[in-house]
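Hey, sorry to bother you again with one of my protein questions. A protein chain has come my way and I'm curious about its shape. It would help a lot if you went through both lines with me. I owe you a coffee for this, so here goes:
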Amino acid sequence: MSFLLQLQKWLDQPIKEIKEIKKGFSSDKKYYLKTNEQAYLVKVSERNNTERKYTEFQVHQRAFQNKVKTNKPIKFTYDSTSCYSIFTYVSGKDASDILPLLTTEKQYAIGIEAGMELKKIHKVKSEVSLDWYMYKKEKNERYWQMYQNSNTKIEGDTLIQEFISENYDLMKERSITLQHDDFHVNNMICSGEKLSAVIDFDRFDWGDPIHDLYKTGMFSREVSIPFCNGLIDGYFQHNIPSSFWRLYNLYTAMIIFPSVVWTEKVTPNLIEENETRIKNILNDHDYFQGAIPSWYKKG
């Protein structure tokens, strides 16, 4: 049975339109699909990824049940070659495209919305036990060794690693929740100058919820600083704990060496872009000697 006929059977509706969506770094194939009644997003993955993809679908369901603004999970199924995740399609445009066109106040307001949605995601509690401290410490040590064998070198790398090592203990006894793990403006949809949806739970993980915020200063900051300020303020309801920034700085520092290793291995065409991004992070954080990144201004 053809892919199109399979979809019609699963949805029990005739399909009027289907087109491939060619965006992002995911290995999934994605399709926009329209019937007489509804628009859908269909993700097609290799059959050997079925277990992970089914878990991802269940996680997405739990987030939706927690009233997170996201596309509604409809069906998960598989055949002999592939597995399929079917969701409602959220119309609108990427937040990364919309935010630069808006006023500072509206960018900040969308950031507030995003922070509140992330808080809902983090209310999905983990059902697995995890020693977060050991997991992250060992992972960082591995990447530090791999970084030392890489071709790219970051100014002040030893200073960065010293900062990380001195602050490992901050990761002890952290709460463990669902992490979106790719929470930034390229994974958000806006419509009518409002946040419509948080999308793409492909990289979901379990761990300290604060870890989910580091991509604010890594990716979202490049698009809209007012949005980033709003996200932090919205997440904490304008009451940031005194312990937050030191932990945030630690998680931000801990992504630098993995980003170098990953970029060299997977996307070598983006090495220069990644180096620029790292320089921005180091300048924002004064090489992790400052308490609060320079882009943050309390709203």
Q: What stands out?
A: The chain has eleven helices and ten strands. The chain has a mean pLDDT of 95. The two ends are 56 Å apart (CA to CA). The domain at 93-288 is CATH 3.90.1200.10 (Aminoglycoside 3'-phosphotransferase; Chain: A, domain 2).
